[in-house]
């Protein structure tokens, strides 16, 4: 039996199942305790009540363990403008003996001692080199630290020519498979292991510093200054008429979000799902005619413009490498470029002559430039990533990039530019389908490793959601006479047929791993599938009688996880990709994460349209 005939039989089975369920599930539409739009309005209202769009002051305190980025921003502590030398001192306390790779970048010259032995020395002139990639930061040099069990004294000598004065250290631990805990909590970095340093002092910094010592001839690395002879607290040195003693580096005050969930953050972080949620709430406002929802998108976007200069100051002046908004600046990943730019370009397309329009235009143009010229792609133009392995194609990136391409096409004034974006969006669907779609299951695998294409990753629910959502966006906006339109419509229909077979027949939910009913029932995937199928019925892409029952049952499930106050539960938090299916089983389930709220709002709109019709 050929595949075409088999698919016809499957569709016939779907149709018969739909007919059997239709009369029962039609009653669901009449028996909802609240209409879908009222349920999602409760969710949006909770957001409007609770999101502060404001920062709180925190101290830039050190971490406990010697891991991640360690920054000595000496120019914030010592006067600049002429050559000088300073020292920084700390102690690594280790549970084991080991050789530890450590990356180092620095401005001008640097010398490092570990337990009294020189482990690094480099004379140079110029700034520190720090390279930011998709989800990591890399430094210029790598050294091997011979760590002994117990106490290891780390002394750093840094010189400046008078303009830059920074040192970056980053221990590197072996990579582990996604979901496994990295073995990086066996070394602590603290000045508390130095004699007579109190706990309250050690809480403020991992380092003591001393300087600046004169260095007029730039011979500082070869000149011995008193700190090399040993650490003595309370000793005052005089050089060039200056009094010099051990002190803490400048303790900075930072701005941070308010009441962040420890697992997923806040609804006003900078990322694709918080921005997408703002886009969703605006769509709710357009559907209901309520201006407060339309205004939420404006508030979100304008807040990002307001804070961006400060976030740049934190990132590049204070060298805070990680914050919830750090990706506002120069992150080469669709999650933090085209996807969060979606509400900005959407407003440009929908509104005219509004305040700060030039800022919206500049952000959109910069994002378009990145997407078309800098975003990493496969030879046929399909979006790809460098994580977890080079040229990994994630289904997620269908949603991260395709909707923005479509909005760019709709915004374009020139026919040629419009065609360029439409073609790119259509080709993305085809390219992803070729690599990560499993025709035997009619489902997307989470990702494909280009170097190991034979590896089949799990059918993660939300990844399939991102894929079908992006496909529906293409079908909404791509001209119907486009050469790829019919192919994409078939991709959508086949995917729907694969998905509805995965719906739990009792609860109406979809499981986090779609073909594993022993994995947990999950909200975000259920919401997106319900939205995408309802949208297909509303647009005439699929037959009402065959597929309406799955929509109604899906909405019944979703309604059960929306509390009266708008709290939404059973949302899988952010998830990386791996071939280990157990990783997906063990992902934390949280409340009110915008990963789930985003699709839920659109589901409520599309299901309400279906019921209204």
From TrEMBL:
InterPro entries tied to this protein: 6-hairpin_glycosidase_sf, 6hp_glycosidase-like_sf, Glyco_hydro_88, PolySaccharide_Degr_Enz
Source organism, top-level taxon: Bacteria
GO molecular function (one): hydrolase activity
Keyword annotations of the record: Hydrolase, Signal
Signal peptide, first to last residue: 1-29
Pfam families named among the record's database cross-references: Glyco_hydro_88
The protein's name in its UniProt record: Glycosyl hydrolase family 88
């Amino acid at each position: 039996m050929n595949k075409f005939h088999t698919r016809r039989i499957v569709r016939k089975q779907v149709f018969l199942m739909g007919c059997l369920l239709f009369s029962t599930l039609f009653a669901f539409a009449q028996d909802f305790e609240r209409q879908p739009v009222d349920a999602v309005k409760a969710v949006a209202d909770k957001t409007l009540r609770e999101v502060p769009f404001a920062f709180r002051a925190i101290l830039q305190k050190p971490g406990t363990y010697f891991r991640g980025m360690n920054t000595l921003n000496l120019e914030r502590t010592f006067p600049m403008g002429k050559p000088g030398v300073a020292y920084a001192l700390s102690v690594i306390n280790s549970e084991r003996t080991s050789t530890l790779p450590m990356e180092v970048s620095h401005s001008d010259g640097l010398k490092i001692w570990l337990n009294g032995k020189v482990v690094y020395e480099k004379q140079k002139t110029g700034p520190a080199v720090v390279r930011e990639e998709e989800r990591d930061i890399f430094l210029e040099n790598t050294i091997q630290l011979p760590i002994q069990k117990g106490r290891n004294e780390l002394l750093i000598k840094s010189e400046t020519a008078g303009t830059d004065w920074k040192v970056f250290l980053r221990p590197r631990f072996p990579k582990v498979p996604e979901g496994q805990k990295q073995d990086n909590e066996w070394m602590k970095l603290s000045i508390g292991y130095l004699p007579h340093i109190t706990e309250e002092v050690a809480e403020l910094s991992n380092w003591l510093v001393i300087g600046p010592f004169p260095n007029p001839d730039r011979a500082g690395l070869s000149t011995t200054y008193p700190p090399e002879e040993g650490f003595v607290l309370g000793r005052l040195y005089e050089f060039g008429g200056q009094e010099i003693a051990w002190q803490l580096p400048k303790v900075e005050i930072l701005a941070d979000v308010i009441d962040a969930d420890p697992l997923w953050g806040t609804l006003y972080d900078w990322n694709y799902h918080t921005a997408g949620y703002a886009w969703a709430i605006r769509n709710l406002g357009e559907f209901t005619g309520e201006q407060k929802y339309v205004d939420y998108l404006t508030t979100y976007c304008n807040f990002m413009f307001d804070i961006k200069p400060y976030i740049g100051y934190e990132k590049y002046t204070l060298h805070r490498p990680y914050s919830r908004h750090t990706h506002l600046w120069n992150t080469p990943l669709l999650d933090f470029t085209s996807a969060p730019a979606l509400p900005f370009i959407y407003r440009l397309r929908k509104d005219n002559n509004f305040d700060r329009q030039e800022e919206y235009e500049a952000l959109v143009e910069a994002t378009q430039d990145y997407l078309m010229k800098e975003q990493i792609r496969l030879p046929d133009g399909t979006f790809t990533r460098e994580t977890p392995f080079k040229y990994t194609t994630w289904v997620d990136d269908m949603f991260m990039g395709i909707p923005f391409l479509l909005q760019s096409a709709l915004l374009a004034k020139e026919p040629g530019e419009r065609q360029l974006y439409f073609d790119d969006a259509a080709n993305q669907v085809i390219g992803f389908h070729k690599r990560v779609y499993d025709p035997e299951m009619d489902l997307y695998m989470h990702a494909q490793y280009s170097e190991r294409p034979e590896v089949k990753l799990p059918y993660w629910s939300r990844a399939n959601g991102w894929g079908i959502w992006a496909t529906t966006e293409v079908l909404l906006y791509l001209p119907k006479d486009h050469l790829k339109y019919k192919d994409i419509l078939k991709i959508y229909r086949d995917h729907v047929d694969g998905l509805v077979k995965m719906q739990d027949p009792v609860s109406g939910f979809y499981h986090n791993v779609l073909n594993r009913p022993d994995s947990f029932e999950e909200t975000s995937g259920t919401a997106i599938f319900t939205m995408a199928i309802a949208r297909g019925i509303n647009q005439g892409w699929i037959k009402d009688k065959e597929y309406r029952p799955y929509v109604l049952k899906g909405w019944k499930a979703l309604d059960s996880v929306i509390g009266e106050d708008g709290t939404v539960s059973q949302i899988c938090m952010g998830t990386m990709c791996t071939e280990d299916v157990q990783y997906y089983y063990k992902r934390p389930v949280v409340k009110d994460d915008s990963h789930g709220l985003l699709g839920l709002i659109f589901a409520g709109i599309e299901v309400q349209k279906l019921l209204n019709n």
